[in-house]
Amino acid sequence: LHTDVYPPDLYPLRRNRTTAALKQAIQQYRPLSADAPRLKEPQPAAGEWLLSVGPVHAAVIEPGRFLFRLGGEMIEEVGIQLGYTHKGIERLFQVDRALENGWQLAEHVSGDSSFAHSMAYCQAVENLARIQIPPQAILLRGLFLEFERLANHIGDCGALARDVAMDMAASEMAALREKVLRLNLHATGHRLLRGVNRPGGVQLPGTLDIEKIAKTIAEIDTAFTFLGRQVQQKPGFRDRAINTGILTRQQAANLGATGLAARASGLERDFRLRHPFGIYQDAAFRQIIRRQSLPLEATAGDVFARFLIRWYEAQTSAIVIRKILAHLKKTAGQQTSFTTPIEFRRIQNYEFGLGYVEGWRGDIVYWLMKDKFQGIYRCKARDPSTLNWAALKAALNPHPLDNEYIERHKAPQRAVETIIADFPIVNKSFNLSYSGNDL
């Protein structure tokens, strides 16, 4: 939609724009008069109607607008309007942060992936400085990354259960997620694992109680495995989730979908395996991730498949965490700081470093270039949601199923449609980040 709140030629992210000049341009700008021509909403065809959802939603979630063109209950087309959480992140890296403290901004790019984002940023700085971090720091980063993965997968499975009125299972999963968040607080001093990563390693507020962590993870793993199996077996959930919101393997490949959404459609898009980093450079950890031969229904690209992928990956995270704790028990001791000092080579200008992490949604990538004063010349951050919003739209819109999908998954129809009542569970099965997209 047309908006005239700001001057059309403001361009606030350009390097030659100063804060003072931007404020002056905004103050001097006069919006269009009420009778000036504006962009209009698209008009529905005969027999169709438009339904606007958002940007303000019923729950405490981020803002985004969905404009549905409906024929009866069927979604004929959905338009997704984002940008409401645009913050000028890349410009903030340039003008408000140094190489040494840019991690503080990175962990606020997408709050539910705070640790993964800060870890990717720190890896870019370490790559730029050509340093190796201590082995214990590698283990700790792997530990907290899996904490973050576990908490979010449990939370999303619970949210899907709630959306199909399975309130008891949803409440119990919410309680398990809360246990993980309290474990985060116990281990790092923050429920979202902020303030731990540093370029060069990891700093903790205190020593880890490894026995307590291991016991809590075992309890969470046992309970969540049982609850997830219960939800999968409920006819009400299967009826709503199977063959709903299908994203085929071919669609996922064509759209460049990544992470969990791609894996649920049958693509192996996992940076832990394809581009190993940190603990995943160890073949033993990669073997744990590969350990499960997923059932065919976990690659069907529907809501049920995305639930199953989360369920399996949560169990895998618990195994990885237990293996990391066994290593830490031998090496961590009473230390709280695991860092390597960083010195940047001052004779080289405009060098760049790349950092990447497989977060719980998918691959997070940071490209970082320093200037001749050892500051941040550019920092390009890419959250997996940037790639997967197009996949969500494709899953909601009516589309034919290709022959490969029909043959492989014995689809009962050659094309799929989604009713508007199923939009919440399709959207939640992807659970994409608005902030991660609206940089």
Descriptive terms for the model:
439 residues; alpha+beta; 3-stranded antiparallel β-sheet; 17 helices; 11 strands; globular
Task: Let me know the average pLDDT.
Answer: 91
- Helix coverage percent: 40-55%
Biggest sheet, open or closed, and with what strands and sense?
3 strands, antiparallel
Run of helices and strands: HEEEHHHHHEEHHHHHHHEEEEHEHEHH
| Rg | 23 Å
Shape: globular
Spatial strand sequence of the major β-sheet: 1-2-3
Count of strand segments: 11
Structural class: alpha+beta
Q: Uncertain segments of ≥5 residues (pLDDT<50)?
A: none
Distance between the termini: 19 Å
Number of helical regions: 17
How much of the sequence is in beta strands?
Answer: 5-15%
Descriptive account of the structure:
With 439 residues, the chain is of the alpha+beta class. It is 46% helix and 12% strand. It contains 17 helices and 11 strands. The strands form 4 sheets. The chain has a 3-stranded antiparallel sheet. The model has no long low-confidence stretch (mean pLDDT 91).
How are the elements arranged and paired?
Layout: H1 19-28, E1 49-53, E2 65-71, E3 74-81, H2 89-96, H3 103-106, H4 114-129, H5 135-163, H6 167-188, E4 197-198, E5 201-203, H7 210-233, H8 235-241, H9 249-255, H10 259-263, H11 271-274, H12 283-290, H13 303-331, E6 337-339, E7 352-358, E8 363-370, E9 376-382, H14 385-396, E10 399-400, H15 403-409, E11 415-416, H16 423-430, H17 434-437
